[in-house]
Each structure stands twice: as structure tokens, then as C-alpha cells.
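Quiz preparation item.
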């Protein structure tokens, strides 16, 4: 990954990844230890997108979660997929056009300032993106603001290994991953979600290095 400079911001790093889709596939294969499809499916099952709902995907990347999201909704909902990387937005748009999907809108934008009105979406989803954002805490607050009362926010993300003997790899993996993806291993996303949302359920995989957190927003009384 010598092409990736320490001075590159997140959008530029992901522009690079968007131009190297095979390298991105290898990255995800390593990150998920070969269980990517199953874990992504579990995260979308936790989100429980329903027909007719509005879903925000924050940090949608090249759109590699869209097929499973749309399948769960039977094509009868609307997804707004935003990403800071112009290259990733183009890749996602190409995927959407190639497959003829409807009800999906891709926008280049900042998850810290999603182009949505307050309490306007039924649910939100972030897969392997939140921990690479400039300010994950602010992004969580921004998502909470646009989710309707009673809505939910599901986060699929990575963190340092928690279990032995895998945890011995952290000292090698963390600096490489930070340089190549802007990953912030010191940020506890689960703790941040618990500080913002009313209820948070967490399921872990692969020695605790991958987790799915389902955060729920309390309904208006």
C-alpha cells in the first residue's frame, strides 16, 4: 500500500480504493476472515428494513451492501447512500445502473452533515465506515438527529481483537489499517452509540474484531 500516503484524507484514500476494487475485495476478505457475506447479512437482518421505509446508508462506499438491503425491502423502499469519496460514489452509481435498481439515490456528502431533515428517515446503516470518519462521535449524533423516534441505527464495523491469541496481532494490524483506511482503533464506537441512543444490542465475531451494534431511538411518549 505504498501508494497511500499518511497525509491523505479519508476521501482521497477511498478514491484510491475505488480504483482498485480487487484490492478492496482482498481487504474485506482479510478483515472479515472470509465471513463477509454472512456477517453483512446478519447486520442487515438486525436493521430489519421493511417495505416502504426510508433508509440512510452513511459511508456507503462502492455500494456493496445495497443488494442485500434492497432484497430485504423487496425493492419497495428508498435508500439514500452517501459517501465522502467521489470515486466510491461513482462506483456505487455504476453498480446501481448496471443492475437496474430503483429507489436508491447516491450522493457525495459528509455523514456529519447528512442532506436530510431532522427525524426524516426510518433507519440508518453504516458498514465498515464509521470508524474511518473524521469524527465518529459527531457522525453518530448527526445520524441520531435524522432518524425518526422509534427508528434504529445499525453499525457494522471493526475494532482491535479482544480475544487471545488474536489480540497479539493488534500491534501489527492497527498502524497498517490506520494508514490504509483511516481506521481509528482507539475510538470505542459501541460506547459512543450507548451515549447517544437509548438501547444498543451488540453481537461480536472473529475474536471480537468485528461487531454489529443495533442502536434504537426511543419513541415519542
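Solution:
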Amino acid at each position: 500500500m505504498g501508494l497511500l500516503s499518511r497525509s491523505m484524507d479519508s476521501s482521497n484514500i477511498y478514491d484510491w480504493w475505488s480504483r482498485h476494487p480487487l484490492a478492496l475485495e482482498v481487504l474485506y476478505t482479510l478483515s472479515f476472515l472470509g465471513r463477509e457475506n454472512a456477517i453483512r447479512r446478519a447486520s442487515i437482518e438486525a436493521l430489519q428494513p421493511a417495505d416502504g421505509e426510508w433508509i440512510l446508508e452513511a459511508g456507503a462506499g462502492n455500494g456493496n451492501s445495497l443488494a442485500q438491503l434492497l432484497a430485504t425491502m423487496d425493492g419497495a423502499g428508498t435508500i439514500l447512500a452517501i459517501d465522502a469519496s467521489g470515486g466510491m460514489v461513482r462506483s456505487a452509481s455504476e453498480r446501481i445502473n448496471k443492475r437496474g435498481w430503483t429507489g436508491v439515490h447516491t450522493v457525495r456528502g459528509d455523514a456529519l452533515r447528512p442532506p436530510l431533515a431532522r427525524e426524516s428517515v426510518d433507519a440508518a446503516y453504516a458498514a465498515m465506515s464509521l470508524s474511518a470518519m473524521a469524527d465518529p462521535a459527531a457522525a453518530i449524533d448527526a445520524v441520531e438527529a435524522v432518524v425518526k423516534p422509534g427508528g434504529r441505527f445499525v453499525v457494522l464495523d471493526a475494532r482491535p481483537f479482544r480475544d487471545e491469541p488474536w489480540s497479539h496481532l493488534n500491534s501489527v494490524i492497527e498502524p497498517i489499517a490506520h494508514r490504509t483506511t483511516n481506521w481509528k482503533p482507539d475510538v470505542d464506537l459501541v460506547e459512543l452509540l450507548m451515549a447517544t441512543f437509548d438501547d444498543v444490542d451488540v453481537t461480536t465475531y472473529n475474536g471480537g474484531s468485528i461487531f454489529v451494534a443495533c442502536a434504537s431511538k426511543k419513541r415519542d411518549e
